[in-house]
Design brief:
Radius of gyration: 18 Å
CATH class: Alpha Beta
Largest sheet: 9 strands, mixed
Bound molecules: 1-O-pyrophosphono-5-O-phosphono-alpha-D-ribofuranose, uracil
Distance between the termini: 40 Å
Number of strands: 13
Shape: globular
Structural class: alpha/beta
């Protein structure tokens, strides 16, 4: 069974509290998402392998660690996952970015894929899927299935807020993919929104409410 890593940190917790407030305006919401994503990146990449390389400093030659995981590919789920890309690139500037377009049908609540633009060969990549919300888990499950169908084997899921129902469904579908999350909320309401959550993440990031 995959693990759920809740990344606990006072900075993440207090910034997320600010994002949850319905009065927090779009610009601040976006900026907070960017900041939290960067902070969460430390937790989500903690186990990346390193190797020793020789570096000549102005004083001496010595061995130092450097990342040895090959290419990292960020896979934001459109739209809301796009709000996490810059925050990840702040600490992984050389990462590739591949987009998976998906929305939840308002009636059926089932995910509908409308775009997939990934690097040609992701079989050796460390792929980090980005989406602020894991509600029923449907979108995340389908996105990871798409990545696996294209050869990805090293995948991790990164969310801001998750519902226990979504975590359970995701773990059942993808027991080999760990989840990194800032908060696990109470559950889902009748419209499959996370409670208390933060509302519709895409609308709040892109200012499309109302
Ligand atoms: C939101 C969110 C996730 C999905 C989560 O996207 O960003 O992708 O819902 O719900 P689920 O776990 O029940 O699938 P949405 O469908 O609202 O699309 P948008 O980002 O384009 O607004
Ligand atoms: N998608 C969102 O953006 N928010 C939720 O609470 C559930 C799904």
């Amino acid at each position: 069974m995959s693990e759920v890593h809740q990344i606990a940190h006072p900075l993440i917790a207090s910034k997320l509290t600010r994002m949850r407030n319905e009065n927090t305006p779009t610009g601040e919401f976006r900026s907070l998402l960017h900041q939290i994503t960067t902070l969460m990146a430390f937790g989500a990449t903690r186990d990346l392998p390193t190797e020793q390389i020789t570096v000549k400093t102005p004083v001496a030659c010595a061995e130092f660690p450097t990342l040895a995981c090959g290419r990292v590919t960020l896979a934001p789920i459109l739209r809301a996952g796009v709000g996490m890309v810059e925050g990840m690139l702040a600490v992984l500037p050389d990462a590739s970015v591949g987009y998976i377009g998906m929305y939840r049908d308002e009636e059926s609540l089932q995910p509908v894929e409308y775009l997939c633009k990934l690097p040609a060969d992701i079989s050796a990549d460390t792929v980090i899927v980005l989406d602020p919300m894991l509600a029923t888990g449907g979108s995340a499950i389908d996105a990871v299935s798409t990545l696996k169908a294209r050869g990805a084997t090293d995948i991790r899921m990164m969310n801001l807020v998750a519902a226990p129902e979504g975590i359970a469904a995701f773990q059942k579908a993808h027991p080999d993919v760990d989840i990194y999350v800032a908060a696990v909320d109470e559950g889902l309401n009748e419209r499959a929104y996370i409670v208390p959550g933060l509302g519709d993440a895409g609308d709040r990031i892109f200012g499309t409410v109302g």
